[in-house]
Structures are given as C-alpha cells and as structure tokens.
Write a structure and sequence with these properties.
The complex is a heterodimer of chains A (about 300) and B (about 290). Chain A is globular and about 75 Å long. Chain A is built from eleven helices and 13 strands. Chain A folds into two domains: about 220 residues, Rossmann fold (3-Layer(aba) Sandwich); about 60 residues, no CATH class. In chain A, helix 4 crosses helix 5 and helix 4 runs parallel beside helix 6. Chain A has about 300 residues and is an alpha/beta fold. Chain B has one domain. The chains are: A alpha/beta (about 300), B mainly alpha (about 290). At the A-B interface, helix 3, strand 6 and helix 4 of A face helix 1 and helix 5 of B.
C-alpha cells in the first residue's frame, strides 16, 4: 500500500484538462482531456487540422490555452519548471545550418542548464546514430539525419516528457523505422512520450495507448488491442469462404460445430478483427472524407 | 534574475557566433575599411582647400570644415551602425519562428525574457562597439590628415552607442509583430524620419521658427536615438559653439541634423525608454502563440 500511494502521488508526465483553444472565430480545441503517465508512449492521431499540433504546442508552452489547463510533471505548461521537465521536437524545425551536430547539442545543453557535458552529447548522438557525424554541419546533413539530431536535442537534460510533433513526416521507410526503434529505446529509459503523428503503423507498432482527436475533440482513446473490435469469423468450406459477421473468437468453435453438424467440411477458420486503421476511419471517417474529397 | 542573465548570455553568445560564422563581420569590416579610405581621401582634399582659403577674422575655417566633415562621418557611422543593429534583430522573433529556428530555443527553461534580452544584448554590443570604433577611427583620421580634433570625444561616442542600442530595442519589438521585410523597412523609416525631423529643427533654429524647433524637440523625446545623435553633434563643437560668432553659429547648424544639447537627465530618460520598449516587447512576446 505505501508503494501504491507513492506511485499515485507522482504527477503524470502530462495532464491536460478541459483544454480549449480559439483562434478568433475558429475553435481548434473543444475541451480536450488527456493524460500521459511516466514512461508511457501515447500516440496522438487525427487528420490534418484536428488540433494535434495545437495540443502539443500548448503542452510545451508555445501556445496559450483559451481555457483549461495543461501540466507537465505537475507544473503549469510553459512554466520554467515544466520546460525543465520536457523535450520538444516541432514538426517544422530548423537548426542553424552553420552549426555542427555537437554545437547544436552544446547550445541546447546550455539552454536547458544541463551539466552533463560531453558525455551526454556523445551518449545522445550515439543513441540516434550520429556519433560519426558530430562534427558535421547541419547544412550538410540529410533530412533524416536532421530529424534524428532533433530527437537527440529534445532529450538533452534528461526530460521526463518528450513531445514529438510529426517526427517522421519527412522520412523514408528506413528513416521511420530508425525513429521507431529510437522511441522504444527512449521509452526504455523511462521517458514519457506524446507522439503526434498521422502514421497509423507507427502508433500500432510502438505506442502503449492511442488517442484519436478530430475537430478538436478526443473521439477515441485506449490501448491499441482494446480499440480493435471483432469483425467476424471467416470459415473456409467446400462451398468456398464465408464470413460470419459479428462473431468473435469465442464463437468460432460453435460455428465450426454447427457447420460440421450440417454436413459441411471445414478446411479453415480465421477470427477477423478490425485494424487500427479501421478504428481510425470509423472515428474520423467524415473528416477524412471531407479532406480527401469523399474518397474515404 | 541570475537565471535570466545566464540565459540571455547563452542566447547572445549564440547570436554572436552566428554572425561570425555567417561572415557578417567580414563584410562589415570590408565595407568599413572602404568607408574609412574614402573618408581619409575626402578629409585630405577638404583640408587642402581650407589651407588655400586660409579663413578670415570672422570665420575659423578649419574648425568649421573639421566639425562638418566629422559630423558627416558621424552620420555615416550611425547609419552603418543602425543597419547592423537592424539586420541583427529584424527577424529575431517572427522571422525565426516562421523558419522554425525559434521554437526549439524558447521551449527551453531560459524563457522568452532571456531570449529577448540575449538578442538585444548581442545586437547592442556589436553595433554599439562598431559605432564607437568607427567614430574614434574617424576622429583619429581627421586629426592625422586634417589636424582637427573635436571638442569632446567620449560623450559623442557613447551617445552613438546608445542610439544604436535604442534602435536595436525598437527593431526587436518590431520583430515580434512584423515580418522580416516589413520590420526592416519600418525601423529604417523610423530612423530616417527621426533624422529628418532633427534637420527640420536645425532649419527652425536658423529661421527662428518656434514650431519647427518644437517639433524637433518633441521628436527627440519620442525617438530618443535622434536626441542622442543631435547631442553627439553638439558635443563635437561644444566649445566652439559657446565661443559664439559666425563660426559658433555655423557649426551649431551641423550636417544632416542640427546639433542640440540635451537636458542633463536625457540619458536617464533613454534608459527608461529602452526599459519600456523592452517591457512592451516582452508582454507582446509572451502573448504571442508560436
């Protein structure tokens, strides 16, 4: 019990309550609630313009909320204490082209007040696979290298919370995989991550929880395995394949027994469940349709 | 407070390093050397003419020529210093935010106040040092080539540095609300307008027009960099002016903005003005979504 009480006393890495953001007549967020616990990797999904970046920017203090509150490690978002506890990588970021990777890291160590020195820079550059490029100028780096450097700088100062805004949007598949591996390693180090993305595969592969946001509202949230729903049971018989809609894993033995009893030969059975993509499209289908001209 | 200054120092050092790496100083040094060479040539030609003219009982030609050419050099120095100050600050907030350079810095614990202070300190230090060095270079050249020395040296040098520091503060404030190009144009136009009003003031003095003089005086308070420039011009010829006569009257007119002494508390007002500009800038920056 004492241990449980202590854990309960630890503030969430990110706590968002009733967050509202209005830009003039446009409301980007309509009372969003969200929590990211210590060491948790949460994927924030949603179509373009859903409010994901606004939420992320409020969390790191770049944008002021109209109503509601956001706290980072128990401190008001944007406060000095909150900024000490967070690392952030913007969707559209740039480092000075004249600076080397090591100089970028050194600058952010100074800005973050980190006293870890060269050891921290070497460790983080090695973590993102840039240990051989520490003397290379940013302007001579590929987009993927800059993105990895961005993640490394966000980890300067041992933050409790890492806020990543579309960190893989400009990367090729190999680069995305590298970033995914990085996220797993970051999580292993105990850092909580809010991953803002619209790449479902990333979320499905690495995230503990998924929050889907649309029109400034959280429309679905949960663990990926909780969100997927049974889609039916597919049975292959001599007459071909058929799907028993609405049936789940527990129904499979009964379905097979009934078919056998009816004199059919069963060659195969497969329980079908929805993918995260199905869940996502169910949640934001109308929005996607509007944004893609009805294609969704 | 120490955290504020520590953060500002980091930002200022970064801004200075960027200027060095981008070879801003190399370009400025090259242009300044060219300016210095042309100035030395001009002073040489001028004082040869003055020596041939020889002056008269009523006119100290050497003082008039020296004060005028050094006043022109002071204008050129201030102009170059202002250009430097403006280019070091014109994109500090909105421009850098649009390019994605600002966000990674201001989410760090140093905060927005330290960022502004650091950017201002870097611009004011560079442009202030620049105008002091170039002005002193002009004084030395004028003395060596023409044999003329101004009545005061330290005060006008400090006033020029103060003027570019104020311009830096205004450009930084502008960078929060205006895009890069609009801010650059706006600040340079404000600077030009200030000098123009100073010139009108000297015309008002010569014509005895109270209205023009009042306009110039009000402008000196509203745009105190202009007041500092006018006083710096005055300090060059403070003793010659006090001696009166034709020479005293002519040197007071000054080139490109008449010389005019400021009240004793004007430097205090300038510090307060910069503090108010800084406070408004911080308020605007804190309210700005990035």
């Amino acid at each position: 019990m004492p241990t449980a009480r202590r854990l309960a006393d630890v503030p969430a890495a990110l706590q968002v309550e009733g967050l509202v953001k209005r830009y003039g007549a446009h409301t980007a967020l309509h009372g969003v609630d969200l929590q990211v616990d210590s060491g948790e990797l949460v994927g924030l999904l949603g179509p373009n313009g859903a409010g994901k970046s606004t939420l992320t920017k409020i969390a790191c203090g770049l944008v002021r909320p109209t109503q509601g509150r956001a706290t980072v490690a128990g401190h008001a978002a944007g406060s000095t204490q909150a900024r000490t506890s967070q690392g952030y990588l913007a969707e559209l970021f740039r480092f000075p082209g004249w600076a080397t990777a090591d100089e970028v890291m050194l600058l952010h160590q100074r800005l973050a007040g980190s006293t870890q020195g060269a050891a921290e820079r070497a460790d983080l550059l090695a973590l993102v696979g840039l240990d051989d490029a520490r003397g290379r100028r940013v302007e001579a780096m590929s987009k993927g290298m800059q993105q990895r450097l961005g993640i490394a700088q966000a980890l300067v100062g041992e933050p409790r919370l890492l806020l990543l805004d579309e960190p893989t949007s400009a990367l090729d598949p190999a680069g995305r995989r590298t970033v995914r591996d990085l996220l797993v390693e970051v999580q292993r180090r105990g850092v909580a991550v809010l991953l803002n993305t619209h790449l479902l595969s990333e979320v499905e592969l690495v995230c503990d929880r998924v929050v889907i946001i649309d029109h400034g509202r959280v429309v679905t949230a949960g663990r990926p395995d909780e969100l997927v729903r049974p889609r039916g049971v597919e049975v292959e018989t001599a007459g071909g394949r058929r799907i028993v809609a609405g049936a789940g894993r527990a129904d499979a033995p009964r379905i097979v027994a009934e078919l056998v009893a009816a004199g059919e030969q069963v060659y195969g059975v497969q329980v079908l469940s929805s993918t995260l993509e199905d869940v996502y499209l169910d949640a934001v289908g109308d929005s996607e349709a509007v944004r893609t001209g009805g294609a969704a | 407070m120490s955290a504020l200054f520590a953060g500002a120092r980091v930002v200022a050092a970064h801004a200075l390093r960027e200027s060095l790496r981008r070879r801003v100083f190399v370009v400025v040094l090259g242009l300044t050397l060219a300016f210095g060479a042309l100035y030395a040539w001009g002073v040489n030609e001028l004082f040869q003419d003055v020596d041939e003219f020889g002056g008269s009982r009523f006119l100290d030609a050497k003082t008039l020529a020296g004060a005028t050419i050094l006043g022109l050099a002071m204008f050129g120095t201030l102009f170059l210093g202002v250009v430097l100050a403006v280019f070091l600050t014109l994109n500090a907030v909105r421009g850098d935010a649009e390019r994605g350079l600002l966000q990674p810095m201001v989410v760090r614990p140093l905060g927005r106040g330290a960022y502004l202070l650091g950017r201002w300190a870097a611009a004011a230090t560079v442009s202030g040092t620049y105008v002091v060095v170039v002005f002193l270079g002009g004084v030395v050249l004028t003395k060596l080539v023409g044999g003329y020395a101004p009545d005061r040296i330290v005060t006008p040098a400090l006033e020029l540095a103060g003027a570019v520091a104020l311009i830096s503060a205004l450009a930084l404030l502008g960078s929060i609300v205006l895009g890069t190009t609009a801010n650059g144009i706006g600040v340079l136009m404000v600077f030009g307008a200030g000098l123009l009003v100073g010139l009108l003031g000297s015309i008002g003095d010569a014509l005895g027009s109270g209205t023009l003089t009042d306009v110039a005086n009000v402008a000196s308070w509203a745009l105190p960099f202009e007041g500092l420039y006018r006083d710096a011009l005055f300090q060059l010829v403070a003793d010659a002016s006090s001696r009166g006569g034709v020479t005293g009257a002519l040197v007071q007119l000054g080139p490109l903005g008449g010389s005019h002494d400021n009240p004793a508390l004007f430097p205090v007002f300038c510090v307060a003005y910069a503090a108010v500009v800084g406070a408004v800038a911080l308020l605007a920056f804190r309210r700005r979504d990035l």
